Amino acid sequence: MTHRAQRSKEHPVRYKLELGAYRGAKFLVNLLPETTRLALGRWGGRLGYLLDARHRRVALQNLELAFPEWPLADRKRIAKKSFGNIGTAAVELATSADLDRESYLDRLDFEGWENFELAERAGKGILLMTAHIGNWEALAQAPVLRGKPVSFVARPLDNPYLEGEIRRIRERFGNRTIMKRGAARQLIRTLRGGGITGLLIDQRVHPNEGKAYDFFGHPAYTTPLMARLSLRTGAPVVPVFGIPLEGWRRCRLVYRPPIFPESNGEDAVDRLTLQYLRTIEEAIREWPEFWLWAHRRWAKPGTAAADPGSDSPPVESASERASIKAH
Fold first, then answer.
1. Which domain holds residue 296?
2. Can you tell me the mean pLDDT for 282-303?
3. Nearest to residue 89, comparing CAs of 280, 279, 289?
4. In 96-135, which residue ranges form alpha helices assigned H by DSSP?
5. What angle do the packed helices 72-95 and 34-51 form, to 10 degrees?
6. How many domains are there within the chain?
7. Per-residue pLDDT for 102 more than 50?
């Protein structure tokens, strides 16, 4: 029995009800004008800010760590906007599911695409690096809409029926989803074949998966997998961020200059990972309202930094980590 089939038997009624609720909500929302749909998502997210005390507290704690010089009123303002953008992103994902290739492409503004092409000319594959900023779902769709499919890593949803629904949305133009558990070997094969992969590296991982790197002046457990892949395969890393425009009706895709791998060694892994994090940090400083502040990026105050608070499966197993470790 597959893991997905096993999960579908854990809570079959609840999972099917959730799927039905999702499809019903999607149908009703699509009956509304686009401006109304997006406003509904924004206000739904802000309602979440008011009702979800735990994640509101996490967001404000994160903002205090990142921007201690800001007054509390500014941190609350950004937290509210962040929650609103989370709600809008959910609506945008559901309602963009029915767009055809030309309609989707028409909503995207490409900035710095020459950086993508520069990395492509190296002939080593491309690692797209991004974070949970703005419309990160659009980032994987943009290259395939220009004829360049992406294999990206994703953690499967707990509900296998919803997982299938979201996966169809993500893969409808030719992309491929790589499940997070044991993804490292597939990523290496993709890059060695000249393919494109994508990773989001801004969320906290288990200490067994990463190291505590400086992020906004505080130690934050981060996976060094991207640096190891780049060093092992020679693939350059292209930072890219999806910034919503016109109230999420359009998306500005910002491609930064590629980061090419240095000489091998653990020091190189650390230097590259820190360089990636500095790039993400700069993007968050530029667009703070679009980052996912409600995720506990740093350790909970008063607890051990090694507690990740997540049961997410590892991207690379111990054997895979050994196989891709730079020498």
1. 3-324
2. 88
3. 289
4. 101-106, 113-121
5. 130
6. 1
7. yes
